[in-house]
Amino acid sequence: xxxxxxxxAELTAALVDIRSESGxxxxxxxxxxxxxxxxxxxxxxxxxxxxxxxxxxxxxxxVVVAGxxxxxxxxxxxxxxxxxxxxxxxGTTDMKAGVAVQLxxxxxxxxxxxxxxxxxxxxxxxxxxxxGLLRLTRNHPEWLAGDFAILMEPTGGVIEGGxxxxxxxxxxxxxxxxxxxxxxxxxxxxHGAGAVLDVLRAYTPREPEVEGLRFHExxxxxxxxxxxAGNVIPDECxxxxxxxxxxxxxxxxxxxxLREVFxxxxxxxxxxxAPARPGLDDPSAAAFVTAVGEGRARAKxxxxxxxxxxxxxxxxxxxxxxxxxxxxxxxxYAEIALIREAEERMVAWLNGxx
Length: 354
Prior knowledge:
19 strands, elongated
């Protein structure tokens, strides 16, 4: 049982110590559901391993505070440990520190100035098709309705607007099989992949400004596959490429750009998720930046589920205590001071003190 009266850093450690790799979130979802159902001011629902809790106070505006409970695979970094003001462990920064803040808000703020929906969802760290928030948009869209949303993704305590889109493509080179003893009678597809890598090495990523925030794109090979046997000249090689693109482009724009960049090669789109524009001119977002972010905001240089809320017509920002640079690393940690600061700022905001 999670103790929501404990210090937010201790609660983060308790969350980290419950294994919840993507696809294996059930035990943690049970613990979150049980803790929330013990709070009489909340209505709690569940879909798979996603848990949603709502206040029903009849306030004129509703805020959604969301975070994913899954982590990337554990690599000898559980259980958690504390060293020098830092809490180490898998998921500390991405994003169990943010989830701990969500749980503390749910427990501490029984009568917020806005009605609040707390969303804890599964399978964010894997293919978009498995995303728990996406599943909720299909099964229970009414649970996600709101006037403004905050994703407690790691931002180092700085509000980050929008998010970049992501697209994965396969760039294929073809050849002709032959026995390696008579290699000149074939055409080596792996050698042909060198031209794809030349394109990537020469590529200059864009750094566009979108609604006053500076984004930085990236185009990189992330896998390469080819080969038949140790004595066969391969007839196919696949270079898997990930494109992170700024929110001034659509998914269709991104695909068109990649087909232009890899003109002359076979290009297959494998997966894509749309970006989200910053939207900080929305009154709710602007007020949140002023109250919680002390007027500071920057671009989110990654993809987050603000994109899902953008597609639902709900303005959304990223704000959480973890450091995004540390996400998915073996030595991942969260600064305890930033976890407590995020809790303090969010509690004050929901109470109308900021």
